[in-house]
Design a protein that fits this description.
alpha/beta, 8-stranded parallel beta sheet, 10 helices, TIM Barrel, globular, 39% helix
Length: 271
Amino acid sequence: MLRAASAQNRSMLCVGLDPEPTRLPACVPQGPNRLYDFCAAIVDATCDLVCAFKPQIAYFAAHGAEDQLERLMAHMRCNAPQVPIILDAKRGDIGSTAEQYAREAFERYGADAVTLSPFMGYDSIAPYLQYPGKGAFLLCRTSNPGGDDLQNQRLADVDGQPRLYEHLARLAQGPWNHNGQLGLVVGATYPAEIERVRALAPTLPLLIPGVGAQGGDALATVRAGWRPEGPIVVNSSRAILYAGSGEDFAQAARREAERTRAMLQDALLAN
C-alpha cells in the first residue's frame, strides 16, 4: 500500500495531523467538530500529494476528541483510500494491555500502521503483528536530543557492542520481522544515523520525522535513507498544517505540501 501510494502520487511525503486548538485558523468554526473540520480540510487538500497521513492520537485525546479522530480516520479511508494511515501512538506495553492497544489502533480507528515504543521487547510488539496487512513502525533513532540518553548507548554484552538503536534495527530487519510488517522511526536531524540504520535494515520502510519545523535537511535525509528496495516516509506536520492562517489555510497547506514534495523529489534526483 505504501509503495503504491508513493508511486501514484510520486511522493515520499507524509503529512502529520497534529491539530493544536490554539493554532487553528479563526475561520474554522468553534464547536465539537473543530479538530475534525480542520484536519479533514487538510486531508482533502493534500491527499494527491502524499504517500501517507500520520494523525497523532494525543492531539485528539487531550481534548476529549477521540470521536473526531474516529470520524477523521473514516474520512481518510473514504476520500483517500489509496493513502495509508499511520496512527502515531507510540504505545509500548505487554500482554493483554498490548492486545487492547492493538485493537484500539486497528479495529477502533482502522489504522494501516501504528508507531510503537519497542523498549519492553518483542512481546510488546507481537500483538500488533497478529493483524495481517497491518504495520508497525518502531522507535529507533528519534529526532529529539534526549534520544541520546538511551538510543545511542552501547550494549556491552552484545557482540560488537552496537549502540541500542543499531541493535534494534538488526532485530527489526531480522528475527522480529516474521511477516514483513515492521518499519523503523528515524529522525531527519540525524542523517548519519539514518544511513547507519539503512545499512542494517536495507529493506524496511523508514518513517522520518523532522523535515520542516524541526529543521531536518531534505537532501541529506533522502541520500541517507532512500533505497530502491527500502522506501522512506518523510513526515512534515506543523510546516504544512499552519502554512496559512486565513480562509485559504487548506490551499496554503497544499502549496507547502507541493513545495516539500518537490524538494524531496529533487533530492532523490540529485542522490
